[in-house]
Amino acid sequence: MLYHLSQYLQRFDLPGAHLMDYITFRAGLALALSLFIVIVIGNPMINWLRKFYVRHGGEDQRDLDHSGNIVGRTNYLEKIREELERIDENDTEKKAEVAKMLEKDRKSETPGMGGLIIIVAILAPVLLLGRLDNVYVLLMIIATLWCGALGFADDYIKIVRHNKKGLKGKFKVVGQIGLGVIVALTMYLSPSIVMNENVEVHNQQTGEIEIVHKQQQAKTTQTTLPFIKNHNFDYNWFTRWTGDFAKTGGWIVFFIACIFIVTAVSNAANLTDGLDGLASGTSAIYGVALAIMCYLGGHVGFATYLNIMYIPDSAELVIYAAAFIGATVGFLWYNSYPAQVFMGDTGSLCLGGIVAVFAILIRKELLLPLLCGVFVVEALSNMLQTGYYRYTYRRTGIGKRIFKMSPIHHHFQIPAGKINHVLIQKPTNAQPENKITMRFLLVSIMLAVLTFVTFKIR
């Protein structure tokens, strides 16, 4: 909106009107504005959500004491606190167990649906500062609203309708598939989504190999893949055996890949949202990495230096990425341990969908398994745990586990010996929640750095 206004004001040679032409300037404004929005609306939104949760009973209303007697929440908490005071000071194990029960009740009283804060803080700067005639920006706005609505529906069913299962899994999957189809179809049909392929040219005068980009813009299924020449991989490699139909087959494979990536990453982000600050912190790191990749791929000079494809007009997504970073970092102010608000599925499904669609648009989706390693491990741990339990139950009649609990971040919260038939008991002692979160964030930073290192490996 402000960008288009500045284009009009430039006709009158107003001082400063040209600043909006610079992507870095608008990205800085978007980052600052998204942080400001979170700070301004954070507490009022949390207070409203808390009242909303009290009115509708929240997601996990406890009304039984240890003996099975029905008591109010206040009485229940008072009983736990009294028990904590009566425990001998030397009985650290018992104190830790009761303290953990108190922590669980703190979480059950913390309102969710905080993802609404993130969505507002992303969209407002993008609508103000982004180019609304840019197909990449429009797709990201659609992805944000689409995944946000999907997560909101799940939270609404849990809270208002008191159905703890939330939105049925098949409806979630259909929604995620629908977004994948929209993204893939737009990339196939839109004349604005093209790329300039990077090629190596031998300079006969100097004898050196130079990197240049083809002048002709092409609509192709090429994407970025490290460890191969020029970092370019074409999906029609899978269908090259079909001869003349290889290009069409490549687009079909690309459609399938888009659907799978959107579904997998959004669900993985949803599983990661289990500790205070974990999903928002890792998403902020991924946002920084994707913003840098987007800027490099949208700048012909940097794309030439790194020998990666040049994607015209995609640099406009840096404004969106800056707003995304500001929103997630700002949300950490309220979501870091101990959390004042949880993002809920409204936030987690939205963040995962945003990361997936953004990576697809800048042709870096095949780097996600490395960049989003924490998301991958969380999802794999859940699938392995479920599969192994069902397998051992059918074979022996006793369900066994690989981890003490899944997703894997919960594994580190439980001391060894608390759960039977577990293959991996280490670590022996339960780790504090904020320590687990911080270590996962450090791993995410290291994986992000490693992802950039792959750009120079062929």
Portion in beta strands: under 5%
The ordered H/E elements are: HHHHHHHEEEEHHHHHHHHH
Number of strands: 4
The rounded Rg comes to 25 Å
Choose one word for the global shape: globular
Number of domains: 2
Helix content: 55-70%
Number of helices in the DSSP assignment: 16
Describe the protein:
This protein is mainly α and 458 residues long. The protein has two domains: 25-58 and 111-371, no CATH class; 62-110. It contains 16 helices and four strands. It has a two-stranded antiparallel sheet with strand order 1-2. It has a two-stranded antiparallel ribbon with strand order 3-4. Strand 1 (198-202) and strand 2 (209-213) form a beta hairpin. Helix 9 (278-297) runs parallel beside helix 12 and helix 9 packs parallel to helix 16 (433-453). The two termini are 42 Å apart. The relative contact order is 0.13. Mean pLDDT is 85; it is low at 60-77.
